[in-house]
Amino acid sequence: MSAAENTPAAEGGEAIVQHACTRRRRWGAPELERLTAMVEQESLFYWDAPQTNELLRRFRELYPLEHCMPCSSGSASLHIAVAALQLPPGSEVIVPAITDMGSVIGILYQQLVPVFADVDPLTGNLDVSDAAGRITPQTKAIMPVHLAGNPCDMAAVMALAGEHGLAVIEDCAQAWGATWQGEKVGLQGDLACYSFNEFKHLSCGDGGIVGTNREDLGRGLSKWGDKHYDRVAGGRNPPTLSPNYRISEPQSAVAAGQLTRHDVIVARRQEMGRRLAAALAALPGLEVPAETPGGESSFWFLLPQVVPGAVRISRDEFARALQAEGVQGQGAYIPSPVPGYDVFQNHDFFAGRWPLREAGLTSMDYRKQHFPQAERLLARNLTVLLHEEMSDRYLEEVIAAFTKLLRYYAA
């Protein structure tokens, strides 16, 4: 290499990546076919409508969940799942300290208590042994999150849940196509939640779906996202309070089209993710999470970690150097473990207050919570973005960029 090629682009050298995918063509004929049919309809309301029914049919071909509610977002799907459990106020739901706010919003709105547990130091998935130590008589449910498409150890989760009589809500928002012991994620727990958000494997801009094979939870599941109206019997006399999280026919049309791409998208991401993970794991100075034993990741993104002391610049500086080389990604996946967010540190859940705590139904104080493994991971990780239209050449250049920077900045 020339001196310019050896010098990081952040310091005036030549950028390695020259073949980044500048435009991701996510939608086309399958979505247009459904949208064209949609505009001929008299109504765009979701209930028993052509596009939503087709969405459900295609979804069940991939994820055989008998009772399903398509809804407005992945966050909505999680809220519906939590609400369907009908837990008494003050009940506790265990969630990993690294997740999205969407995992916990529904818990708080149902007047329940998110109990955060630490994570595996490499994958960021729920540490089941840590979760076990946080179970109390008030614990009623556990929510494993398949982070970045890498499945949780569902055998351990289900064993813990069975031992303590906990409901299991699988957060599959980042894990379309991931599998656990040969079965798609979401089919092991009591309720499964998926996302059609703009940034997920499959997208209709925003949307989601929640499903279950439990008859007791499935009867009336849709009511929990539809103002608790009974669309079968008719009438508007809801017996309890539920939000409006309904999907619309335009969203369903695009989502149904996206589901025809499911297997191709997942297969390409797995090919790319495994290739990139293997190459980066071979480089000195990086630690790369492996796929969970017994599972297959669908690689929403990759989470390599910079080994402390391996480079002479900070993790954030290294992330910026990668961006200058043309690598798509960033540093920390999230700024801190979720309980470190201002909303939790201030207990500001309802107009600056937490009525549940004021009523004596919980003594939880998020200001006293610490999660060493989650904090360690977020201080070290790099978030490397992937999508199915990135070329093999781009992946080669990403590997070359990491190699160049690790060599140049070696401590």
Automatic annotation (TrEMBL):
Molecular function (GO) terms listed? transaminase activity
Against InterPro entries, the record matches this protein to: DegT/StrS_aminotransferase, PyrdxlP-dep_Trfase, PyrdxlP-dep_Trfase_major, PyrdxlP-dep_Trfase_small
Coiled-coil stretches: none
Family annotation (Pfam families): DegT_DnrJ_EryC1
Class in the EC hierarchy, top level? transferase
Alphabetized UniProt keyword annotations: Aminotransferase, Pyridoxal phosphate, Transferase
E.C. code = 2.6.1.-
The family this protein is said to belong to: Belongs to the DegT/DnrJ/EryC1 family.
The name of this protein is DegT/DnrJ/EryC1/StrS family aminotransferase
